[in-house]
Amino acid sequence: MLKAGVLGAGHLGKIHLRLLQQSSQYELIGFYDANPEYAQKIVKEFGYKYFDTIDALIDAVDVVDIVTPTLSHHECAKKAILKGKHVFIEKPITNTVAEAEELIKLVKKHKVKGQVGHVERFNPAFKAVKDQIISPMFIETHRLAEFNPRGTDVPVVLDLMIHDIDAILSVVKSKVVKINASGVSVISNSPDIANARLEFENGCVANLTSSRISMKNMRKSRFFQRDAYIAVDFLEKKVEVVKMKDAPKKVDEFALILQNAEGVKKQIYFENPEIDENNAILEELETFADAINNDTTPIVSLAQGTEALRIAIKIIEKFKK
Asked: Which helix (H) or strand (E) holds 32?
């Protein structure tokens, strides 16, 4: 079993602590949090071992799970990597692309593994259809959340939209060549509502909308490609797959047939992929353990996390212009 420790015991950090303790692939050694008084409350409530310095925790483990505020990701990860420890870093990977690129070089130099916590990659609905999203040419995403003061220290792009940026980059095998974006600050000092249009070299276009001051929660993505329409509801963990094929010569009376001006007939049919329930955070942590144990590339590599951050920052820069 891999010895693991958590840096940061906030809302998400507590979830990581609980899941690492449950996991059969990790031995939870303990945690560090910058607030000693709060940390002692966690100790009393859950019994986890508390380390009073970051270095002490790093020295005691094989894997460092970094769930601290984004501004400290680079410093924490660098300390761990320099001591030969594997690092799991919550999204976004770091505060700047330069910091992220340094971490990529460091993990390679010190021969350790790194993964970024883009948890939607492990959402069972997305996993059920990901292999069917082959050549999307238009993508539309909506990620809306009710207001929560937690996370408003960063623009909504880094808080919410980056999930969709990463998911899109994982299925569109082409380079982003153009970005248009707008953002509005309503209650925070940084944008609370944002819309971005990404244009890819292969002609694919993605339209992303995110808001953290909505009346209801929504996390939906729609992928349009030549042979299919695929909708993913990340919140409800549901999918809708509509496909098209050449109509057979003998058509069933209940078949849905479309005919174009040239007389070509196409049949529309529906698929219902099986969705396997999972705990996405536990799965991302355990696949990281697999990557370490089997010396394979993590599902969300530091390079992929860096590319998502790069696009997110370019979107934010468009707001300023």
From this structure: strand 26-32
Q: Is residue 34 part of a domain?
A: yes
Neighbouring C-alpha atoms within 13 Å toward the C-beta of 75:
8
Residue 305 lies in a domain: no
State the CATH number of the domain containing residue 66: 3.40.50.720
Going by DSSP bridges, is the β-strand pair 2-7/26-32 parallel, antiparallel, or unpaired?
Answer: parallel
171 alpha carbon, distance to own chain's centre: 13
| Tokens representing residue 97 in the block | 């692309």
Enter the pTM of the model.
Answer: 0.92
Domain end point (choices 112, 140, 158): 112
The answer to whether position 288 is within a domain reads no
Sign of CA dihedral 70, 73, 75, 76: positive
Q: Give residue-wise pLDDT tens across range 128-166.
A: 999 999 999 999 999 999 987 665 667 899 999 999 999
Does residue 168 sit within a domain? yes
Nearest in space to 304 (alpha carbons), one of 143, 149, 109, 165 = 165
pLDDT per position as a tens digit, 264-303:
777 787 898 999 999 999 999 999 999 999 999 999 999 9
Supply the range of the domain harboring residue 197. 121-279+311-320
pLDDT over 90, % of the chain? 83
Packing angle between helix 11-22 and helix 280-294, nearest 10 degrees?
60
